[in-house]
Amino acid sequence: MQSLLSSIRALAVRQHPGDALRCLHLTAVTEAARKGTREKARKKKVKVEVKKVGFIPHNQRDNKINVKRADKHVDDSWKQVPKDDVYVGRYYRWTVYSVAEAIQCHRETHHPSMYNVPNAPLNVEIELNMQGEKATRFVDNFQRMAMIPHKFAHGEERKIIVFTKGNNEIIEAREAGASLVGGVELIKDITAGELLLSDYQYFIAHPNILAELIALRGLMKRKFPNPKSETLGTNLAEMITKFSNGISYSASKDEYQQNFGLISACVGTLDMDGQQLEENIRYLLQDVDTMRPKREGRFINRVLLKSPPSSEQLKIDPFVYVPELWDKSTMKPKREPSGKKVEAEEQDQAVAQQASN
């Protein structure tokens, strides 16, 4: 039987007379060995390219993984109000201070017996709801200059160049404190390369020189004077005062939560009068409120007062100075016809006379 199997596994084949015998191996073991050999040969032919990956920032790693992040909009309205002055803060609502009380608390913290920094800066952090008019739209990041009534040492270098025609406007700009004032000749010096615009932070212009100023649009780019940024106007003294003494701030959306925006700005120092600091905060909040989108709900969610090097942060009520919700009647006032207005006034007068009688 074994001799029969061996004779079957190896067959002698002769194609033509005189040719050598050729053996055909038909065993399964031989076929499996040849198959594995072929696969190994194919794998050797395929070149494996190893790509070198450089450093990847943390905010660009694993973009496909949805990390569950906490909502940055703090809402503690559901928590109970503390009944005394000793409690665990995370279980109760934040205490809302008036601006005067918050300033006094920071002054006590910076007393010579503690931090000993009586002239520490007073910073304001404003948390915004950047949701736009539609659910899929958000307010773009913006940068503005807020006019304040009481100036302070902001520590920034602000060189202002003013473009205008006419002797009266030039004298007005120089008296207001502009770093450089000029007209057509100044534009020619800049185009010739004799003066660098990079040495100046702000550009202000009068409408009477706007036609000649178009030649510098390519050099100024986004800093080109325009009414929206309040760098183009007839009142040069007011604009110069605003950009030299005002509060420069910017609102930026969170990288992972687009409907959360934050503004951090300095409104003065603790050695200033408390009333002056409160007025600066009022003007800053009113300027921020001008960027409010036309939708229902809050735009300013929370305002905190901080004063480094202390880590203490005190919550104040911003709705004392700005409206809490968007009012359609204020944005689009409804005007009554003159006849109805007269009739209403006559009715009010009649009611007043009856009450007096």
CATH top level of the largest domain? Alpha Beta
Global morphology: extended
**What is the total number of structural domains?**
3
The overall strand count is 12
Topology order in helix (H) and strand (E) letters: HEEHEHEEEHEHEHHHEEHEEHH
What's the N-to-C terminus distance? 139 Å
Poorly predicted tracts of residues: 7-15, 332-357
The radius of gyration is 38 Å
Output the CATH topology of the largest domain: Ribulose 1,5 Bisphosphate Carboxylase/Oxygenase
Give the fraction of residues assigned to helices. 25-40%
Can you walk through the features of this model?
The protein has 11 helices and 12 strands. It has 357 residues and is an alpha/beta fold. The chain has 3 domains: 2-41, no CATH class; 89-146 and 247-328, 2-Layer Sandwich (Ribulose 1,5 Bisphosphate Carboxylase/Oxygenase); 160-244, Ribosomal protein L1/L10, domain II (Rossmann fold). Helix 4 (167-176) packs parallel to helix 8.
What's the short version?
The protein is of the alpha/beta class. The protein has helices spanning 2-9, 28-45, 99-109, 167-176, 184-191, 210-213, 217-220, 236-245, 274-289, 328-331, 338-356, and strands spanning 10-13, 22-25, 96-97, 121-129, 142-146, 160-163, 180-182, 202-205, 247-253, 260-269, 300-306, 313-316. It has 3 domains: 2-41, no CATH class; 89-146 and 247-328, 2-Layer Sandwich (Ribulose 1,5 Bisphosphate Carboxylase/Oxygenase); 160-244, Rossmann fold.
Which tags fit this structure?
ribosomal protein; Rossmann fold; alpha/beta; 3-stranded parallel β-sheet; Large ribosomal subunit protein uL1m; structural constituent of ribosome; Ribosomal_uL1/biogenesis; 357 residues; Ribulose 1,5 Bisphosphate Carboxylase/Oxygenase; 7-stranded mixed β-sheet; ribonucleoprotein; extended; 12 strands
